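Let's study a protein:

___
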Amino acid sequence: MTKKRYFFLILILGSLTALAPFSIDMYLPAFDTIAAYLHTSPEQMTLTMSSFFIGISAGQLLYGPLLDRFGRKRPLYFGLVLYIVASVGCFFSTSLPMLVGMRFFEAIGGCAATVAAMTMVRDLFPVKDNARVFALLILVLGASPMLAPTAGTAIVNHFEWQAIFLVLTVIAVLIFIAVFFFLPESYKPDPTYSLKPVPIITNFWAVIKEPQFFTYAVSGAFIFAGLFTYVASSSLVFIGIFKISKGAFGWVFGGLSIGFIGASQVNSLLVRYYKSERIINVTVICLVIISAVFLTGSLNGWFGMAGTIVMIFGVLCCVGISSPNASALSLAPFTKNAGSASALMGALQMAIGALASYGITLIQNQGTLPMAGVMAASSVVAFVVLFVGKRFIKNKVEAVAGAAMAAH
């Protein structure tokens, strides 16, 4: 594969991966504006976020079997078209229930892009390159928290809030064109793959019973929950507590994402010299330590805004390094069921991320304690799952090795 083609494939797959996160981040600055237009409260507006998370979590389980049965591109076309139609529906929404419903269908469509992109990494690239490719996808994905809130703020300042969904529609159309003309079909449809409920459930059960998948997918989901926690509570912390402007919030939000992006690219260098397993072991330990310091500091009032930014930056760096390796190790054992495995991994990430976002609301505190507490709890669970689960992996498939190989 030439370097030019390699770069172009990464760009398309990265754009597919970033579509759903971009759909979340871009409209965050418009919460107040949309709430006023729909005659509701910003708190009620969070229902549009919840419906999106539910849709994207459930939708990934839907697309996994479809990608294995019909190939990768046909279900992807369906998802992108559904996303475009639902985004137009968001544009014309005149009530909160309508917007909540349209956001749900937007998520159902958008998650096809995420699942297909993750699955096609397993199809198009050698297993030994998967962790590096996932890190490059994160580079594209990381542009979302830098660009989306700033773009959303600019749109709301110059146009009506509906323009946000017009922009999302145009982005999806451009991605559809790129997929149609430039992305190859990477998997031959399997007509023997049953879409009946019992075989689908049996197939998912076979995937989750694989000790390597369970260990790295579940621990990886709890690691990734740190990012969800940050996204869900960042506006409350920086705008609500530290009283910065919406414009400044866009810069802080984007600046912190540099930790996530930069760390993922450091990982691209690390996987040349160390196995993914070793990298994730070290970074999870670091994540637990940083989260514990953040939690202790929040309980004792150690951190102002600068200290809080440093702590969040550290957490995001750990997430950026560990996540590509967790994804690569989760999918490494699979070839035939890669679509179902990718979907299940994504669904776990979204479900646990949504749980982490909800957990923030359970901690009655006006400071940084809710964010720090959920980050600390999720990192400890990730640590326990990782180091206990590894004991049950009898035939480990390396994600970064000279070739795909089983190691006893």
Notes: The first strand starts at residue 396 and ends at 397.
